[in-house]
Amino acid sequence: xxxxxxxxxxxxxxxxxxxxxxxxxxxxxxxxxxxxxxxxxxxxxxxxxxxxxxxxxxxxxxxxxxxxxxxxxxxxxxxxxxxxxxxxxxxxxxxxxxxxxxxxxxxxxxxxxxxxxxxxxxxxxxxxxxxxxxxxxxxxxxxxxxxxxxxxxxxxxxxxxxxxxxxxxxxxxxxxxxxxxxxxxxxxxxxxxxxxxxxxxxxxxxxxxxxxxxxxxxxxxxxxxxxxxxxxxxxxxxxxxxxxxxxxxxxxxxxxxxxxxxxxxxxxxxxxxxxxxxxxxxxxxxxxxxxxxxxxxxxxxxxxxxxxxxxxxxxxxxxxxxxxxxxxxxxxxxxxxxxxxxxxxxxxxxxxxxxxxxxxxxxxxxxxxxxx
Length: 372
Ligand code: GLY
Fold this sequence. Notes:
Bound molecules: glycine
Largest sheet: 7 strands, mixed
CATH class of the largest domain: Mainly Alpha
Pfam families: DHQ_synthase, DHQS_C
Strand content: 15-25%
Number of strands: 11
Distance between the termini: 49 Å
Function: Catalyzes the conversion of 3-deoxy-D-arabino-heptulosonate 7-phosphate (DAHP) to dehydroquinate (DHQ).
Helix content: 40-55%
Mean pLDDT: 95
Structural class: alpha/beta
Strand order of the largest sheet: 1-2-9-6-5-3-4
CATH topology of the largest domain: Dehydroquinate synthase-like, alpha domain
Subcellular location: Cytoplasm
Keywords: Amino-acid biosynthesis, Aromatic amino acid biosynthesis, Cobalt, Cytoplasm, Lyase, Metal-binding, NAD, Nucleotide-binding, Zinc
GO cellular component, one term: cytoplasm
Order of helices and strands: EEHEHEHEHEHEEEHHHHHHHEEH
Low-confidence stretches: none
C-alpha cells in the first residue's frame, strides 16, 4: 500500500506526517536525512517497548544509526514532573546535542512528555513523533502541543514545539485493545463532526469495517483526520481562533474525566465521543441545528459500540451543578463565561463565547436523568 504524506505548513518549521504500513521498519531510512550524526535517543513506555522496540532498533541498525532508549512506565501518571526530569537528565547523560534528534515512540503521554523535554533540552532540540495509538496518530502527535500535568490540572505546563517529522504506522493499530482503538476513534469522528460532513458520511459507512481491521480504510481515515488538523494548525498554530474547533466535545469531556477521577471508567477518547453527542444536543436546544443532527451522532456512536450517553459510564456521577462547576475550571473558560464548540450541523462547528449556563445545566440534568 502506498505512503500518504501530509505536510504541516509552518514556514521554516514545516514538517511531514507520513502515514502508511510498515513505517516502524523503515524508521531508520525515514529519519536518516534529519541526522547530523548517526545517533538517536528514543523515549518510549514499557508497553510499547515490549511490542515494538526491537523492530525500531532493527530499523536504525540497518541504517548504521546508533539508538539508545529510555523506557518509562505506561499511563497518564508518567506525564508529570518526575518522568519529565528523568527524561531530560537521561537525554543529557546520553550527550544529546542541539543538532541531534530525539524520538518519541508511543501514545499521547509519551509524545507530550518527550516533546516538552525536547523543547527545553539545550533550549530546544528537534524531535520525531512515532505515534502508536490511534488517538496519538490523529491528534496529539501533530500540531506541536507538548507538556505535562501538575497537581493543579492537566497540560498546564508545556510549550508549543513542533516535531520535525511524524511517522504514523498503520500496522501498530492492530496491536491495540478494541477499547483503545474505539477511544481513538472518538477523536477521528470529531473531525467529521467539526468540519467535514462528507468525511462523516464516509465514516458512517466505513468505520465498522475499519474498526474490524481494514488497513486501507484505517490509512484513509488517519490521513483525512491529519489533513484537517494540519490545515487548522498551519492557519492557527497557537490557538488564537480556529484551532479551538479541535476541542469539540472537550468541555463536557474534561468535566466527565475529572468526575471519574481520570480513571479506567472513562478514557479520554470515550469522553470526547460523549462530549460531541452532548455538544450537538446543546446546539440543537439553542436552535442552532436540526433535531436530526444529535440523533445521527448518537446513532453512529452506538452502532460503533462506543460510549454515547452518561448512562454508559459505570458508577456514580455528580449532579448537574457539580458537573457545571467542573466545566468552570476548564481552560476554555474566559472571564467566567462558558466557551463551547457548538455546531450549526454536522461538519459546521464554531466557537460560541457566551453559552447560557442554565441551558448547559438542563442538558446535563436530562442526560443524568436517563441514567436513573
Ligand atoms: N488536541 C487539540 C489541539 O491539538 O489543538
